[in-house]
Write a structure and sequence with these properties.
By secondary structure, the chain is of the alpha+beta class. The chain has one domain: 2,3-Dihydroxybiphenyl 1,2-Dioxygenase, domain 1. The chain has helices at 16-27, 65-73, 87-96; strands spanning 3-12, 31-37, 42-49, 52-59, 76-84, 107-108, 114-118, 128-132. The longest helix has 12 residues, at 16-27.
Length: 141
C-alpha cells in the first residue's frame, strides 16, 4: 500500500455558505465542487489547494456522523483523507495489520471516488479516509 498524496482535509462547519464565502474572500480560494452526499447525511464544498482540497462539511441531518461530531466537539478538523491507487487493497492492508476500520468494504464517495475510513482509535485519534479517484472524480473548474 502506498499513499500517493493528501486528497483533502475535512473541516466540519455549521454554516456551509459562510465557510465557502470566508475561504473565497479571506484566502482567495474559490469552491470548485459542491455536492450533497445523502448516504452520509452531509453537504460538502471542495476548495482547491494546489492538487488537494479543503473539504467543508455540514450535516443535512442531526443524526449523521458530522451532525454528531458538531454536537459533541463543535466546528473544526473532522478527518484527513489520503489518495491511494486501490482503495480495496489499501483497506485490506490496514485490516491485515490488525487495525480497526469503520468501513469493512470500500464504498462510493463524493465526486465519483471510492472511499473507506479507518477508525480514529487506530490512528492516534485522527479519523483517516482512504480515497481512490475514479473516472469521474476529477474536479474541473
Amino acid at each position: 500500500m502506498e499513499l500517493t498524496e493528501i486528497d483533502h482535509v475535512a473541516i466540519a462547519v455549521r454554516d456551509l455558505d459562510e465557510a465557502v464565502r470566508w475561504y473565497a474572500e479571506v484566502l482567495g480560494a474559490p469552491t470548485v465542487h459542491r455536492e450533497v452526499v445523502a448516504s452520509d447525511g452531509v453537504e460538502e464544498a471542495l476548495v482547491r489547494v494546489a492538487d488537494s482540497y479543503v473539504q467543508l462539511l455540514t450535516p443535512t441531518r442531526e443524526d449523521s456522523p458530522v451532525g454528531r461530531f458538531l454536537a459533541a466537539r463543535g466546528e473544526g478538523l473532522h478527518h484527513v483523507a489520503y489518495r491511494v491507487e486501490d482503495c480495496a487493497a489499501a483497506l485490506e492492508h490496514v485490516k491485515a495489520a490488525g487495525q480497526r476500520v469503520i468501513d469493512e468494504h470500500p464504498r462510493p464517495g463524493s465526486r465519483g471516488t471510492t472511499v473507506a475510513f479507518i477508525h480514529p482509535k487506530a490512528t492516534f485519534s485522527t479519523l483517516i479516509e482512504l480515497v481512490q479517484e475514479g473516472p469521474t472524480s476529477a474536479v474541473t473548474e
